[in-house]
Amino acid sequence: CTYCIVPHVRGPERSRDIDNILSEARGLAESGVKEITLLGQNVNAYGKDLMHGPGFAELLWGVAEIDGIERIRFMTSHPKDVSDALIEAMAGCEKVCRHIHLPVQSGSTAILRAMNRKYSKEDYLALAGRMKDAVPGLEITTDIIVGFPGETREDFDETLDLVRRAGFSAAFTFMYSPRKGTPAAKLADQVEKAVKKERLLELNALVAGMTARENEAYVGRTERVLVEGVRESGGERLCYGRTHASKTVCFTGGAAPGDIALVTVTHTRELSLHGKQAEV
Q1: pTM exceeding 0.70
Q2: CA 242: distance to chain centroid?
Q3: Interstrand relation of 248-252 and 236-242 (parallel, antiparallel or unpaired)
Q4: Which residue among 3, 94, 150, 194 is the one 20 to 30 A from 24 at the CA level?
């Protein structure tokens, strides 16, 4: 991407040998780990640099076969490398979590082209729709940059429109900041900081409202939560963890870290769900 310095600093992407990854995952499972997160700058491009090697979907299926591993997450994905095989793995493998972080960066096709993202606004919306159709309950989160060089008000309005249509569960939003050595930093039509700040506030307000509505839909539902920790608050024992779809949940109950607890959601806050452990 024309705004990113990471490839220049770290060099070309390199895929680890699949046997090495699976061996590490088996070792973690034997030590009691229940959830594995596969990480990469563009994780779903895994295997493209390996001669006749397995792809990312094959890696997901391989990890899923390991006894003891109950959940598999991955990030971060690039829309251009979401394959049919990956969608099939997410739909067909119960251990793969119903969540994908799929950065869009902009809703303007012109700006996406300037970013060298290799997809259009409509391409992204079609992909998001196809994934949601294939994977019931899928939660999609994203990254968005405002104020990229050359972004007009019309371009920004396209971003707002995409956010409304894509139905994101949450979004991480940023003002464009030039990185020395990247092509975007050399562009002449930089957007004024005051304009970027104004657009970021407008975008954040839209995203916050959508996240709140998404979370409200969980009230009254009972979810399986993998407990990540326990803390005391106001003399009350509170557990916290995440649902299969990566929603953060805080709840009262006697669960311990590593447990998968049934939790009934009673209310929400800005970025999290809250509830109580359900009786089995």
Answers
A1: yes
A2: 13
A3: antiparallel
A4: 94
